[in-house]
Structure formats: C-alpha cells, structure tokens
Amino acid sequence: MDDRFKQELRATCRGEARFDEPMTRHTSFGVGGPADAFVLPGGLDDLRATCQLLASRDVPILPLGDGTNMLVSDAGWRGAVLCLTKGLRAISFQGEIGSAEAGASLSVFSRQCQRAGLTGLEWACSVPGTLGGALRGNAGAFGGETFDRLLSVEAIETRTGQTLLLKKEDLPHSYRRCDLPPGLLLLRGAFALAGGVPGEIEARMDEILSRRKATQPLYERNAGCIFKNPAGASAGLLIDRAGCKGLGVGGAVVSDLHANFVVNRGGATAADVLTLIERVRQRVRQHAGVELETEIRIIGETL
Ligand SMILES: Cc1cc2nc3c(=O)[nH]c(=O)nc-3n(C[C@H](O)[C@H](O)[C@H](O)COP(=O)(O)OP(=O)(O)OC[C@H]3O[C@@H](n4cnc5c(N)ncnc54)[C@H](O)[C@@H]3O)c2cc1C
What we know:
- The protein has 303 residues and is of the alpha+beta class.
- Helices cover 28% and strands 27% of the residues.
- The strands form seven sheets. It has a five-stranded antiparallel sheet, covered by helices on one side.
- The radius of gyration is 20 Å and the shape is globular.
- It starts with a helix and ends with a strand.
- Flavin-adenine dinucleotide binds next to strand 3, helix 4, strand 9 and strand 15.
- Keywords: Cell cycle, Cell division, Cell shape, Cell wall biogenesis/degradation, Cytoplasm, FAD, Flavoprotein, NADP, Oxidoreductase, Peptidoglycan synthesis.
- One of its GO terms (biological process) is cell wall organization.
- This is UDP-N-acetylenolpyruvoylglucosamine reductase.
C-alpha cells in the first residue's frame, strides 16, 4: 500500500485506520503477523465508503470480529482487515425478536436477552467473540447453535457497497459451518426468541458458565476448539486417547485440561501452531483412523 492510498483510506474512514498492524493484538491466540491495513469503521456509511475504496483498488478484505476463532499466519494479511467491533455493535428488541449488529459481543447480546426476559440464546453467554463471527461459523455450545433461532441477516456486498437482506433459508449451514457467498460481510442478525423468566434464564447461564470454567483453559491464550467433532465422536476424546495432551511445538501446547485446545504458553508462532495441528491430526489418524477437520480459520500466507 503506497502512502497516497493510506492517506485516502484515512480520509475516507471516519473511524480508525492503522497500517502494518500486528494481528497478535487482535487474536485471542496472540499470534499473527501484520495486516497491511486495519480499519475500524465508525458505522455503516463509513463501512460502505471504505469497502468501495478498497474494491476500487482490488484490496483483499478480511472481516474481523474479536479474533477468537482464527489463526493468522506469521506473514500476516496482505490487504485490509475490517473490524466491526467499534462502530457496529448495537443491540435492540422488538417484541420477542432480538437483533444485534455483527460487531456486538455474543455474550453481551445473550445477557441482554436474559435481562429482557427472552429465552433461546442462553448457550451463547459463554462463547467469546462477536455475533458476526458466530454467524460466519455457526458457533454453538451446550446443545444450541447460532442458526437455531436465526430469522434473517443483513449483509453488505463489499465490492459494490450494496446491502441485502438474507433469510435463514438463503444461507446453507450445518454444524460449525455457514456457506456465506464470497464478498459478503455480515452486518446484523435477527433472532426469534421466546418469553421466559429472567431468574430461570440466569440460572441456566450460571450452570453453563461453571461447566465451561471447569473444562476449558480459559485463563490461557487459545482460539477455542481446534478441530470439529467428527460425526458421533468427540475430537477432544480422540486427541486425548491418541496421547496428545501436553504435546508441544515451540510455545504452542495441547492443553492438559481440554485436548481439543491448543494454548499459547508464550511466544508461539503460527508455524508452531500449524505444525502442532498436523502432528495431532496425524496421531489421531494413526490411532483411530479418523481424519480431523479444523474448526479454527487459518488466515493469510502460510509460507
Ligand atoms: C476460550 C474459547 C472458547 C470457545 N468456545 C466456543 C464454543 O463453545 N463454541 C463455538 O462455536 N466456538 C467457540 N470458540 C470459538 C469462537 O469464540 C467462536 O467461533 C466465535 O463465534 C468467533 O467470533 P469472533 O468474533 O471472534 O470471530 P473472528 O475470529 O473474528 O472471525 C472468525 C471468522 O468469521 C469471519 N467473520 C467475522 N466477522 C464477520 C462478519 N461480520 N462478516 C463475515 N465474516 C465475518 C472472519 O473473517 C473469520 O473467518 C471459543 C473460543 C475461545 C477462545
């Protein structure tokens, strides 16, 4: 990116635009090289203008929420990261329909549903990240998933800046997967919730939170489950049985608490994590004959 383009980007975006921004600062793993540009649009108009400028120069766009489900390569991202957590995080309710912008925290949205006496998103109180990230990967936990109660999403076509409304049926989805058409950035999701008693909803949330605290390494840097559960099996159990707990490469280690988590014990590189992922995959293949598929998103040049 030349200086003239950087100036143009700064002038277009009313939010914030940074350059050569280390992605270690924006991922829960604390891993990743620099993004050429890191943009925090101040709102929808700002986002649209930024997308149009980036499209006019064919600059690749990486949408970012809280970076809790991604591994960014050590080489970083050649293009612009568009992070929605600053300017697009409004939450609103109309009767039993709850809506949130893509940059809203999923757990905050879940908590606001509880306070409004609306049930259906209790499972989400313990999942880190934004609604945009949750929609993109159909995040789920404790028997619930994002698409269960989804009605529709709003998205922006990043090449044209045009916004569109998609019904749930328009978005093919399955376990930890949503087939979003290329070039679309999610803006908002609307959910059909149901009336409930705030105290009872809160009690279910407390139970979910304490189960999570007991079983996951929440005080270490990680990106959640590395692999999807294969049909009818638990990836964590397969990894544990293949003897991978404690296995490490550089600063990346398979957690002793939950075998499907890799933690960054300090100074891990993306290459460390990727090498460890392949070792675990190979051991499980040899031990159980099962091919594990990654759940985390691997972003950028892998070198
Ligand atoms: C401790 C821990 C526990 C976790 N537990 C769970 C769990 O129980 N269940 C679960 O499903 N996940 C879990 N995760 C993973 C993660 O929290 C979820 O996948 C979450 O939904 C990701 O949201 P995010 O905002 O961080 O997404 P990011 O990591 O920022 O992005 C993830 C992907 O979505 C894309 N994306 C983000 N925003 C948009 C947008 N607006 N439009 C289009 N694409 C977008 C990104 O480009 C990227 O490909 C856990 C993670 C951690 C660290």
